[in-house]
Amino acid sequence: MTLRRTLAKKVTASGIALHSGVPVTMSLSPAEAGRGIVFRRADLNVDIPARYDLVSETRLGTVIGQGSAKVGVVEHLMAAAAGAEIDDLLVTLDGPEPPILDGDALSYLDLLENGGVAEQSQARTVLKVKRAVKVQSGQAKASLLPDDRLSFSYDLNFPVIGEQYYQFAFSRAGFRAEIAPARTFGFLSELEALNKMDLAKGASLANTLALDDKGVVNRERQRFADEFVRHKILDAIGDMALAGLPLVARFEGWRSGHATNNALLRALFADPDNYEFAIA
Description:
- The chain has helices spanning 75-83, 106-115, 172-179, 188-196, 227-240, 258-269, and strands spanning 3-7, 11-16, 23-30, 37-41, 46-49, 55-57, 63-66, 69-71, 89-93, 117-123, 125-129, 133-137, 140-145, 151-158, 162-169, 185-187, 209-212, 215-216, 247-248, 250-254, 275-279.
- By secondary structure, the chain is of the alpha+beta class.
């Protein structure tokens, strides 16, 4: 039997929010067994559980909300928590998003590891996918397939980048080495329009791989030749963590994004015959 895990101590980090561009201080704290991951907007005095059914927006990141209170771009931190196999965690913010830090999950993973791990007294429950669940929107497709372990594959095709494919069988060590360092990316041609919509104001050449019509502008920041598809898997890990329990399934994505990922979880939970609970 595997026990649920939380942090041993509180850790704190500060930085700039990716979209709003404002400074944010974030603390990660131990939480009681069974609470799951909860985001607290300290500036609004509102708690928002990290759940797929509370996702309110998926345009350029996954946003969760309760009423008018929202937390944006949760996927990188959620991926780090999943990669560290942290089940219960309180994330306290004084702003609208976690700080983007290095634009990856590794910076959050380092922070979590600095907090140490404490095992809870409660057994870890997993969610096993029993039947194939598939969603599609245009060319974007995503599936969850029955399997005896968690794994991810993704097929990416973007202008300039071209086609990239990656498979990842989940392990904590593998996540740290293969997926967590992969930075977010974006196209310089879209930046001005995004800024006018009050988005991507915290994006910089230090935390984002920037692309123009010739390729990667800040290539010195690139960690992998196929960093883009690895980051799409990072996003998928974070989005799938919003199931609220660790999944035992195979995720397959084709040009999919946050909207498709959330639709996939909603389709999974729409029919109880699609899944079963088990003690890890």
